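Researcher: Here's a chain I'd like modeled. Treat it as a single chain, no partners, no ligands.
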Amino acid sequence: TDWAKRGGNDLMGGAAANRPGREGHKKSAEEILGMPNVSLKDVEQIMADVFEEEKEATESEIDSLDPTPSSVYDTVEASVKYKSYVVRQEKDIESWRKAQGAKIPPTIIYDHAIMPTFSKEEIEKLNRFRPSTFAEASQISGLTPQSIV
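Model: Modeled as a single isolated chain. C-alpha cells:
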C-alpha cells in the first residue's frame, strides 16, 4: 500500500516519501505508526480502506477488520513510537554490564578539573573509597551509572 498517497504526504513522511529512488519501497504499519504525526487511528483507517477495496475486488465474505480497542491505543502507540529508545537503552545497559568488571587504575586522580562531568560530591566519594572496578564504583551511594560511564 502506498501510505503517502492514502494518508497524505504531510502525515506520512512528506516529500521524502516521493523522492526518486523510493519507488517500490514499502513500509509496514509499524514503521508508519512510528512516524511523529501518525496515530494508530490513522493507520487503522488506511488499513480498513485497503481491506474494503480488496474485499470488493475479490468478493470476499469477510465482513471487516476489527478495530483496536480504544483502551489500548496509548499503549500500542507508545510501544511503537518509543521502540528505538528502548532498544538504545537496552544496548546501554548491556554495555554497562560488560563494563562492570573493568579495572580502574589505582593511580587515577579524581579531580573536578580533569573530570568535569563529576559533581564535587562524586569526586569526594571516589577519592574516599578509591574503587578498583566499575562494579565497586557503582555501589557507592550518590554515584549514578551515568556519571561513572
